Amino acid sequence: MFSYPVTLTPAGGIFLVTSPDFPDVTGAGASREEALRSAETSFSDAIARRIDRGLGLPVPSADGIRVWLPTQTALKALVYQAMRRENVSRLELARRLQWQTSQVNSLLDLTHASRIDEYDAAFHALGRRISVGTISE
In this structure, are residues 83 and 126 in contact, taking their beta carbons and an 8 Å threshold? Predict the structure, then answer.
């Protein structure tokens, strides 16, 4: 769904991860896999900070080793991006959905596990639909 490129650099027995798209994303681990898992957490934290601050999310670059975001994180990021594109505030989305603002806040909270029907409703209220697919790793 959502992936960002990273640079993986061996350094003194560990692997360091940086991202050209998110300067504040870093990761490290004793193995390549551990470093990439660390970067996944760092991406989620960086996206949460941007959502909380009302900032845009970078468009993923094309080149590099990819770190795939968890599906829940990707869906929340997609709702947030659709809100920004349509210039829809949290309050306006709540009104369209006939929800409390706290429900919209939970939908955008990366630490909250939202249900798929909530995403469907939010995307519908934003004039969008979810498209589901899989790709080979």
Answer: yes
